[in-house]
Design a protein that fits this description.
It is built from nine helices and no strands. The protein has 216 residues and is mostly helical.
Length: 216
């Protein structure tokens, strides 16, 4: 599987997508809707990356190698997760810089505290849970999977942000007094990471079961 991951990273993934996380610099825009920074991964990186795999006939090429279907799925999911984490880490770094640049800023949308990143992990977990299993119904067609997964991720972000504006408790949790409670913020972040991990593992399991039925 390790060699399959290297194959994707070196041959299948355009170098451009390793620079896409630098869009995390948009975290420096004060008071922006920061969910969008992470959604760029879903809007740009994933469709173009999987479109490239399709154009390169990557599935047939990989199937000719002495590898199992299990390794094919695990390697591709690993590549997706690596890129997701790269986007998250870069955005978090810029988010920390943003908080220090604008210490007294009055946020309407979620501020980039630790708890917010927990929500972003949940959003990416939802994206993975829908996109990966749907894609591996064929391991070739990705349009429908993209539409469904992006819609679900945006709905989560929209509902979460709406609650953050309309509900005083949620607002206080992420932008008010709760934002100063590092223990609480770290707990939300850890919970988000756990949900992301569980959703991605479930997605990988379902995708494997479906891919085993695919005739290449």
């Amino acid at each position: 599987m390790y060699n399959l991951v290297l194959k994707d990273l070196k041959l299948g993934v355009s170098p451009l997508f390793f620079f896409m996380p630098l869009l995390g610099a948009l975290m420096l825009v004060p008071g922006w809707l920061y969910f969008i920074v992470i959604l760029y991964f879903c809007w740009i990186t994933v469709p173009n990356m999987f479109g490239g795999f399709k154009a390169q006939n990557d599935l047939l090429f990989t199937a000719m190698m002495p590898v199992t279907k299990r390794d094919i799925v695990k390697a591709r999911v690993t590549v997706v997760v690596i890129l997701e984490l790269l986007h998250m880490v870069v955005a978090m770094i810029f988010g920390m810089i943003s908080l220090r640049l604008y210490p007294g800023f009055k946020y309407i949308f979620f501020a980039p505290h630790l708890g917010f990143w927990g929500l972003c992990f949940v959003m990416l977990g939802i994206f993975n849970l829908i996109f990966i299993p749907m894609y591996y119904k064929t391991a070739y067609k990705f349009g429908g999977a993209m539409l469904a997964s992006v819609t679900a991720a945006m709905l989560f972000a929209g509902i979460a942000q709406w609650l953050g504006i309309q509900n005083s408790y949620v607002y206080d949790l992420f932008n008010g007094a709760g934002a100063e409670n590092m223990g609480l913020q770290a707990s939300i972040l850890i919970a988000g990471v756990v949900i992301f991990t569980i959703f991605t593992m479930i997605a990988n399991h379902i995708a494997l079961k479906r891919f085993l039925k695919v005739e290449i």
